[in-house]
Amino acid sequence: MKRAVLISGVTAIALALTAATVSAKPGGGERGERVSFEQLDTNGDGFVTLEEMQARGEARFAETDTDGDGLLSAEEIAAKANRDISDRVTRMIEKRDTNGDGLLSQEEMQPEGDRAARMFDRLDDDGDGQISEEEFASMKKKGGKRKGGRDNDGDADNN
Q: Which residue in 16, 32, 94, 119 could disulfide with 88, CB within 3.0 to 4.6 Å?
């Protein structure tokens, strides 16, 4: 009985996290993975139901539960995180490796376009071309708010 309750609880948490992840991320997928509407709409009827979202969460749980015991160990979660990181690094190298040598130079790692200048301008509140200690502290206090009104923890900006 306790095992069934534990499994149900873990599954409920996983489903809740999946729903939060799907709703919080622009593409609706895991970190670095964008899930398309078509992938969620498994029956192809043009709508995503709660059941389809839950099925996605269950599939992600099963993928992580490599020993199939219905429980996630720290090792299984860490292994999944390591696979995700490895996949993300591979995609980053493929995207930025302009000379195709499989390695990233300092030049290839530079932000694209004027991204660095835009970030600097956001931090330079008074526009004097310098970031003061107060401006830096203000940025830290804001918690690294990202585009779309969500902070780095996925919480909505209610200000």
A: 32
Residue 57 burial (CB count, 10 A): 20
Alpha-carbon gap, residue 158 to 151, rounded angstroms: 11
Kindly give the residue spans of alpha helices, DSSP state H, lying in 46-132.
Answer: 50-64, 74-96, 106-109, 115-123
- Residue 48: both structure tokens together: 């995503």
What pTM was computed for the model? Answer: 0.51
Residue 83: CB atoms within 10 A of its CB come to 12
Of 138, 156, 10, 15, nearest to 73 by C-alpha is 10
Quote the CA–CA distance of 139 and 151 in Å, as a whole number: 12
Produce one character per residue of 12-28: b if its CB has 16 or more CB atoms within 10 Å, e if not. Answer: eebbeebbebbeebeeb
> Which one, of 67, 64, 14, 21, lies nearest residue 40 by Cα?
21
